[in-house]
Design goal:
The chain is an alpha+beta fold. The chain contains six helices and 15 strands.
């Protein structure tokens, strides 16, 4: 049998043209898909995400006072402080705080009777002298405790917790972390914080420390700060949270007058600012511990 190839070619011209057209369309589709993949590469997505996070943080910094906030040199505050244990009030007191950027701090507790002061989640008790003053001093990475018995080095575990809270403080994150090389910003999307619409942003430094901020979409002020750290004793993780409220403008700086602190979901303290002032040119002697002369028998 002889096959006429010319007949075959002319008998089915439409199907051959369709096959050729389909092949060309497939090539164009694959080419376009490749170009689109290049245009939306993971690095580009990450860059856009970081830009979103940075824009939200910039708006927050402006809402806090902008340059005035970022250049605060010292703060003097009077605070009503309450500590809690399993949801119940453990103690209340008023203390004065003198703070100087970046690593000097003085806290004065006036204790009219022998009460427990739950400070940074660690209990301390004046040993029974009325109208005593309990002072905590921090200068660099050193901590001191001073009472009428004299001055001694701060308890090691309490100092660790204080330094941890300072490293993760809002001011340290915004003023130091954001300027360090290797910092990474992540916009985690819209969310709800304390029944308010918020944007969620995570900041991670080159030391693998991270802080998550939940920022109000209307005022651009932080509602909540969250960070998780490893517990050196139990080898698990602790979640530390600060909730800010009742913001007021003081000397051009927007200040939270109420701060609630939780540890692993349990409320441990609440602070109410009674008075605050910025850039007071504090005397260096406020942060000088003097000689270590603690006498437990005094």
């Amino acid at each position: 049998m002889t096959i006429n190839f010319q007949t075959v070619r002319t008998e089915y011209p439409d199907s051959c043209l369709f096959a050729s057209f389909a092949a060309k369309c497939l090539c164009v589709f694959v080419l376009c898909a490749g170009l689109n993949a290049q245009q939306t590469s993971p690095s580009d997505v990450a860059k856009v995400n970081q830009q979103q996070a940075r824009a939200i943080l910039d708006r927050m910094i402006q809402a806090l006072g902008g340059d005035a906030y970022m250049n605060v040199q010292d703060i003097k505050t009077e605070i009503r402080y309450g500590s809690f244990y399993h949801g119940n009030v453990n103690s209340t007191t008023i203390y004065h705080r003198y703070w100087q950027w970046p690593d000097k701090d003085r806290l004065e507790f006036s204790i009219g009777r022998s009460i427990s002061v739950y400070f940074w989640m660690w209990p301390f008790k004046d040993q029974g002298k009325a109208n005593a003053t309990l002072i905590f001093l921090h200068n660099g990475d050193k901590g001191y405790e001073r009472t009428y018995r004299g001055t001694k080095f701060e308890d090691t575990e309490q100092l660790r917790r204080y330094l941890l809270s300072r490293d993760y403080s809002l001011g340290m994150v915004l003023r130091q972390w954001l300027t360090e090389p290797g910092v990474a910003l992540f916009y985690d999307g819209p969310t709800i914080a304390e029944n308010r619409p918020a944007d969620k942003v995570t900041i991670m430094n080159a030391r693998n420390q991270s802080v998550t901020l939940l920022i109000a979409t209307d005022t651009h002020l932080p509602i909540k700060k969250v960070y998780v750290v490893r517990n050196p004793v139990y080898r698990d993780h602790d979640e530390e949270v600060e909730v800010y409220d009742n913001w007021k403008a003081v000397q051009g700086i927007t200040t939270p007058y109420n701060t609630l602190i939780t540890h692993n979901g349990e409320m441990v303290s609440q602070q109410y600012v009674l008075a605050v002032s910025y850039n007071n040119h504090l005397e260096p002697s406020l942060f000088d511990p003097g000689p270590i002369n603690y006498d437990p028998k005094k």
